[in-house]
Amino acid sequence: MMKAQTLFEKIWNRHLVKSVDDKTDVLYIDRHFIHEVTSPQAFDELKQRTISVFRPEQTTATVDHNVPTQKQHLPIQNKESRKQVEKLYENVKEQGIQCFPLLDEKNGIVHVIGPEQGLSRPGMTIVCGDSHTSTHGAFGTIAFGIGTSQVAQVLASQCVLVSRPKTMKISINGILEEHLTPKDVILYIISKLGTDFGTGYFIEYTGEVIDRMSMEGRMTVCNMSIEMGARGGLIAPDEVTINYMREHSKTALTKEELEKWKRLQSDADAKYDIEVSIDADEIDTMLTYGTNPGMAIRVGDSVPTSTGATASKALEYMGINEGKVLEGLPVKYVFIGSCTNGRYEDFAIAADYLKGHKKSNKVTALLVPGSNRVMKQIVDAGLDKVYQEAGFEFRQPGCSACLAMNGDTIPAGEYCVSTSNRNFEGRQGSGARTILASPVLAIIAAIEGKIVNAKTIREWKK
Known about the structure:
By secondary structure, the chain is an alpha/beta fold. About 35% of the residues lie in helices and about 15% in strands. The protein folds into 2 domains: about 5-275, Aconitase, domain 3 (2-Layer Sandwich), CATH 3.30.499.10; about 290-460, Aconitase, domain 3 (2-Layer Sandwich).
C-alpha cells in the first residue's frame, strides 16, 4: 500500500530526477522566471562554457526590480539599471526567451505577471532568482527562490540541485472580521511563530480562512512564507484556483488538466513534520514596529519590552520606545504596491476605504501597480478617478519602494507605511523606517497622516 503523502511530497516526487544523497535532490523545473538583476551573471556563465539555454520556451523574462516607475518611455537615467535592462534584452534575444520589456502590456513585477499571464499552473515546480517566488505556491505549486549559480543550472539543464525541505501544515480556522486582510493573517502568523520557525520547511496553508480567500489573497500569504524562514508556501487547488485559471489561461483548460488539478490534495492521513493551528479570532489589524516582519503587533497593542541587543537595536533604529502604542504615530510616506500587495484587489480594497476622503497634504503616497494589466484593471473599473479625486497619483509598474534599487526611496528618519514584505534596516532607503501593513491600514494612514486605532478602522466605512 502506498504511503500517504502531503501535497508537497506529491509534487516534489513527480519532479524528482535523482537523489544525490539523503538530503539533496535534483529537481526538474517546469517554469523559470528571470529578471534583470539576478540573471546577467548566470548568462555570462553559460557563455563562458559555450552552453545554450536548454529549454528556452520554459523560461519567461521581465524587468521590474531596478527600473524607474516614472517616464518609462525615456531612456533609463541610472547607468547601472540601464545596463542591467539592456543586458537582459540582449541575453533573451540571443537565447529565444520570451520577455516582457518596459511598456509592454504584459510587463510588470515577476510574481505578478506569472499568475496573470496563466504561466503559473497547479502542480508545477517554479523557480526564480528572487526570494519571493514563493508567491506562486498559491496555485498549488512548489515555487521557491534560487541563487545566481542555480539560475545558471536551470538555464543549462532545466533542473536544479536543491536540499529537500521538511513539511509543515498551518491551519487557520474561523471567520475573519470584515476589515481584516490576508496581509494581516500572514503578519500575525509570522509574529506568533517567529522569523526562523519555518527554516528548512515548506508550508502548506489550510483551513476555513484560506478557503475563503481569493487567489490574490492566497498569493499574499504564500509570498511572505519566506519571512518566517520557510523555503516556500503552497495552497491546494480548489474551485477558486480553477476559476482564476479559466480567466487567465491563454489556452482552453482540458478535462484531463482539471481532473489532475483536483487531485492535487494532501492525503487525509498524510503526516507533516510540524502542524500548527491558529484561530481567526486571534487576528486583528497588524503592523510592524521593528526591523523584521516578525516584529509585528495588533494595531492597538503596546510595543513589547525588548529582549536582547537585536530588539533594542531595532527599536532604536525605528525611533520607537518599548511599551508604546503606535496609534497617533505621524506618517509622511505611504507605499501601496510590490509583489505582496500590488494586485488589482489590493487597490480595490484600499479604494473602498478611500471613497469620500482625501489624502493628507503631509503624506507622499507611492501607488505602484504590480503590472500594466493591473493598471488597466484599475482604469477600467474607474478606480483611478477615485484616487485622483482624493489627491493620489499612480506610477508605472515595478518593484518600486519595496527595495531601494530604483529611485523610489524613503528619506532617512521618515516613517513609511508599506504594503511590501520586508522592513529591514535600509530596505526602503538608508535610514528609512518601514512599517509593514495591509492596504487598508496604509490607505487610512495616507488619509489621516498617522497610524489610527483599531476602533477607527472597524468603523471607517460605517
